[in-house]
Write a structure and sequence with these properties.
CATH class: Alpha Beta
Helix content: 25-40%
Largest sheet: 8 strands, parallel, barrel
Distance between the termini: 12 Å
Radius of gyration: 20 Å
Number of helices: 12
CATH topology: TIM Barrel
Shape: globular
Number of strands: 10
Order of helices and strands: EHEEHEHEHEHEHEHEHHHEHH
Number of domains: 1
CATH architecture: Alpha-Beta Barrel
CATH superfamily: Glycosidases
Strand order of the largest sheet: 1-4-5-6-7-8-9-10
Length: 388
């Protein structure tokens, strides 16, 4: 496969609804037009099962239910991008710290959960394919380091983890067989040359080799075949670039899979942005890159520091042994601080039993400044060409 230059734009619809505007060289432009001009080829979009309270209150953070994410996916397909469909199997954030079962599945046991994963995955594949979305890869679960669908699928319950992930993989394969047989109507013409939709399994903490060995050693003994290992790598949480590099080289040899860094970012400033959010101090969480974390990073939190980090990052992942480094997705590069768009709402805090507060945690790691102006790192991404 070609080297992927990807962006996660799951909050796109919410950001635009809240009034976010984007500029390139001083000229206001559509966000997707900007990204196309900088050689981005694939957009990652998360899908939550039911990100709404029983009273109909939004959980926020993009409101990425199947319908909302479908509209984003149709739009980015029309703009000429491929889509990484990122199925969380949860009603809200799924990551190593929380993998809550969807509300509708809360009473299910292992066999029922396995069937629910299969049915939901097949339903989503049909929905997106029938609506002409150019699905170029599918992620079965998100940051599965500690499993999924807790408590049944929590590490070290690898039999159950494998059962759930395998169900998702089988559903992707089933839909793909139907696509290739011509029994799904409305399939995107751009998919005609794709012989198989690649499946990604994604963990966090890309610098932690022991984690990847333990997880994939256990899964590969029990699991269906898959094509891609996805890694999250945030320098303020996941160690040095050398640690990422070493881990990728090791797992490339150990498992023989292509590797994509499914989430990456780097800050460009430590300036506050509360004036843009228009929230009281007690209502906003502030940036995730707390000073104690930033001290550990080899690069300064400046515009040049972001550029230098991404330059070194791209050079490293494109030189993984045996050509196994196949690209990246920058996480939420357009999540600038606008009133109304944050990581959670009061309804989702209640759902997660999280004390909060809400607000935007990510704005100082975007690829646009707080006013929406494209940063120089875009030039680097556009001009980067992996060696053949």
């Amino acid at each position: 496969m070609n080297f992927v230059k990807g962006m996660d734009l799951s909050t796109l619809a919410e950001l635009e609804k809240c009034g976010a505007k984007y500029y390139d060289n001083g000229e206001e432009k559509d966000l997707l037009e900007i990204m196309k001009s900088y050689d981005v080829d694939t957009i990652r979009i998360r899908v939550w099962n039911d990100p709404w309270s029983e009273a109909g209150e939004s959980y926020g953070a993009g409101e990425n239910d199947p319908k909302t994410s479908l509209e984003i996916a149709k739009r980015v397909t029309k703009a000429g991008f491929g889509v990484l469909l990122n199925l969380h199997y949860s009603d809200f954030w799924a990551d190593p710290g929380k993998q809550f079962k969807p509300k509708a599945w809360e009473s299910y046991g292992v066999k029922e959960l396995e069937q629910a994963v299969y049915d939901f995955t097949l339903e989503m594949m049909h929905l997106y394919l029938e609506n002409g979305v150019n699905i170029t890869m599918v992620q079965v679960g998100n940051e599965l380091s500690n499993g999924l669908l807790w408590p049944e699928g929590k590490v070290p319950n690898y039999d159950n983890i494998a059962a759930f992930v395998n169900a998702g993989i089988r559903a992707v394969r089933k839909a793909d067989e139907e696509r290739l047989a011509g029994s799904i109507k409305g399939v995107c013409p751009q998919m005609e040359g794709l012989s198989k939709i690649p499946v990604m399994i994604h963990l966090d903490n890309g610098g932690n080799n022991a984690l990847y060995r333990e997880w994939f050693d256990n899964f590969t003994k029990r699991g269906e075949d898959f094509e891609l290992i996805g890694l999250s790598y945030y320098p303020f949480w996941h160690g040095s670039l050398q640690m990422l590099n070493d881990n990728m080289n090791d797992i490339a040899k150990r498992y023989g899979k292509d590797l994509i860094v499914a989430e990456v970012s780097m800050g460009y400033t430590m300036d506050d942005y509360k004036d843009y959010e228009k929230l009281a101090d007690e209502e906003r969480k502030g940036y995730a890159t707390k000073p104690a974390l930033v001290e550990k990073i080899e690069y300064p939190m400046t515009v040049q520091g972001q550029y230098d980090f991404m330059e070194d990052f791209l050079n490293r992942i494109s030189h993984i042994d045996d050509g196994k480094g196949k690209g990246f997705f920058y996480w939420e590069p357009a999540w600038i601080p606008v009133p109304g768009s944050g990581w959670a709402t009061e309804a989702s805090l209640k759902y997660m039993n999280d004390k909060g507060p809400c607000g935007n945690e990510w704005a100082n790691q975007a690829l646009f400044d707080y006013q929406g102006n494209a940063l120089p790192t875009w030039n680097l991404i556009r001009d980067f060409k992996p060696e053949e």
